[in-house]
Write a structure and sequence with these properties.
Structural class: alpha/beta
Oligomer: single chain
Largest sheet: 6 strands, parallel
Bound molecules: manganese (II) ion
Radius of gyration: 22 Å
Helix content: 40-55%
Amino acid sequence: MSDLIISADVVEKNNAARKADLERDYASLGERLDRRGIAIDAIRDKVEKFGVAIPSWGVGTGGTRFARFPGAGEPRGIFDKIEDCAVISQLTQATPTVSLHIPWDKADPNRLKQAASRFGLGFDAMNSNTFSDANDQKLSYKFGSLSHADAGTRRQAVEHNLECIEIGKTLGSKALTVWIGDGSNFPGQVNFAKAFERYLDAMREIYAGLPADWRLFTEHKMYEPAFYSTVVQDWGTNYIIAKELGDKAFCLVDLGHHAPNVNIEMIVSRLIQFGKLGGFHFNDSKYGDDDLDAGSIDPYRLFLVFNELVDAELSGAKGFDPAHMLDQSHNVTDPIESLMLSAVEVQRAYAQALLVDRKALEGFQEENDALMATQTLKAAYRTDVEPILAMARLRTGGAIDPVAAYREAGYRAKVAAERPAVASGGGGIV
Ligand SMILES: [Mn+2]
């Protein structure tokens, strides 16, 4: 039995006040879904098994390019972060793993493992960092890392990634995510082909250090911190990388790393079709890599992404096993509340996508009935699946209303008294 940070009494009391309403709502939705030939319990079972990883950096308060306002009771280090992640997991029962970022979360791996397993948490993909300079670092990444013109700097960046794999092996992680800030701010600053060749050579060394049962995820990003070009700019480049490296290399899609209005769900479909979808960094954005809460700006897009994922799941697409991770940064909300709601939003999109009448959709597509095809998706998206999500949480020991239970437990005030405010720290913008 895992340790609980939020008192079981608080959760039970909170659930007791909502349980009768939930049961009525669940029965009513079940009846309506039954008319559509859908068994509500089967959807709920799938939701119960669906998990999304919490990024360790997400439980801290992020900043903007202008300022960072520390939040109350922010984690002082990785062990506080693990406790915050445990709260999210306890109340949502949707986030069984934590994704670490090295060197921000560097600590004795055995202690890390112990701290997480106390709360029943596991570790998802390891994240390396060669986009900022660590305190004890010899060579700077100011002008790049894995694609740097200097061989010594590239070597240092490769070594860092190999170290992340080593730490991850002890933790039980099975993947390394590599995102680099390499690029240029001005035309002519770098030679595109040479920089990409240097990057590929460096990545081949990292790939060679990967254990047999690990996967390597590379993350593309159109701009930022480099403003004119980035080395891993788009999904096409990312696909080339995964193809060049080999069978254990896959593309990671961060929803905020594309130009506005790019058809991300189609990118997802392409990567699935060619066996190279590694996973996601879920978040939402209005203009750029805003790292807002998942589903907070365009929940329909999140649904359309999940429509592709469920299509692949149901059709048994070869090698389909995407890693689900959140990647967001908060500066006006309590990060724990935001992460809980994001996890729920991701589950919501999954549940809605499971409701799509795929046989009908296929028929409409074959008949070129555009209107009915799109209405088939809308019918699933318009369904309020909240009773399914809440019932899944209730049955697995979570809270029917995670934010209400969290606020009632007074966790933030409690940790604010224990943890002094910090003015700076890891941003969490990747
Ligand atoms: Mn990301």
